[in-house]
Design a protein that fits this description.
This protein has 3 helices and 5 strands. The chain has about 110 residues and is of the alpha+beta class.
């Protein structure tokens, strides 16, 4: 799936936001047969899998509601695929970066559990 122009911009803004908060970008748009993880970062020893969502309006629950259980399951499988290639598995978490139409960012740490 190709990123839209607004999707690419949202991911860039989210990556810059997280880097300003001290996280180090490891990889962006990691793909496996299960799906894609927008951003993979490090915060100290913790590996952070970040999902970036932007919605122009809050109909149907807005950006947060779009990360439903099915999407979470695909993110978890993709993260497991990523972790399988590492020599050891660090502490991990799943964060969500939610952008509104004005590009305000809400950072939800530990958005869901694996």
């Amino acid at each position: 799936m190709a990123l839209t122009k607004s999707g690419s911009r949202a991911e860039l803004l989210a990556a810059q936001f997280l880097q300003r908060h001290g996280l180090k970008l490891v990889e962006s748009n990691f793909r496996s047969r299960f799906g894609e993880i927008d951003l993979i970062l490090r915060e100290g020893e913790t590996l952070v899998f970040a999902e970036v969502r932007q919605r122009s309006h809050s109909n149907f629950g807005g950006a947060a509601a779009s990360i439903d259980s099915r999407k979470q399951h695909r993110l978890i499988l993709t993260a497991q695929h990523y972790l399988a290639a590492l020599p050891h598995i660090p502490p991990c978490r799943f964060d969500a970066l939610l952008l509104d139409a004005a590009e305000n960012i809400e950072w939800v740490k530990n958005a869901f559990e694996a």
